[in-house]
Sequence to fold (300 residues):
Amino acid sequence: GQLGMGLAEMLRKQYGTDNVILSDIKKPPPHIFRSGPFVYADVLDYKHLRELIINNQITWLVHYSALLSAVGEANVALARKINITGLHNVLDLALENCLRLFVPSTIGAFGPSSPRDPVPDLCVQRPRTIYGVSKVHGELMGEYLHHKHGLDFRCLRYPGVISVNTPPGGGTTDYAVQIFHDALSTGHHECYLRPDTRLPMMHISDCHRATVEFMQAPECQLSLRTYNIAAMSFTPEEVAQEIRKHLPQLKVTYSPDSVRQTIADSWPVRFDDSNARRDWGWAPAFGLEELVVIKLVYQP
Ligand code: VAH
Fold:
């Protein structure tokens, strides 16, 4: 999906193409299929996952399969299956086969009773989406198995990820990807959030680099198993203004969508990622200005 393809590319540069297997339940773009090992894998098919792990002598499992915030609210039963049953399949297989496991969490793992500006790594987490509930469950289950059975479980809470070429899949932060496509094509973006809705965001290359650096961090450096990572926080109006420095004609109309606005209003405004910076040297490369330049000038 939006994250797996780019991470596989980064890992293959470091560990060799044939040592990184990309999987999905749907056909990837042809250039991805040709770029290295690709297999069909359904996170709900425990036996097939086990066969893949054993036949390929897998050591690390990166688990990105999940229904995101908005699409999860539209299909709670499926979100529960994929995000919770699927996670348990992965956790059990990791334990059974001594895998090291990376599972992402999200700003969506917090709720309206969490501190919002900034939100620390450790605080009240009462998310109001099935996506957030499933991600808190993932954090807690992974840490339980780490402390009880020594599972090398690692988790990063991602901000809204601004992808390059792959469209996002049903999230609340997706407007921040679409606005660039619209600015470069029609010159008009209809935003489903209010202009002043501030959310933590990150360019996808920072997200991939954070994930690889965290996976490579020596265990002795990790005071936590789940970390916030941050890069920037912006509102729709702020990113529109930054885009207008390059495309002055950009027009944005605001038609708040009640489901996604309610979700966004329950999420943190900014991440405190000081533990990640201290423990394993996290540092973002892209702020809002750099994001807009790379999206409009270098990777339109
Ligand atoms: C979503 N893009 O909007 C995802 C992400 C931080 C948000 O988890 O649901």
Observations:
- The chain has one domain: 41-298.
- The two ends are 20 Å apart (CA to CA).
- The mean pLDDT is 96.
- The domain at 41-298 is CATH 3.40.50.720 (Rossmann fold).
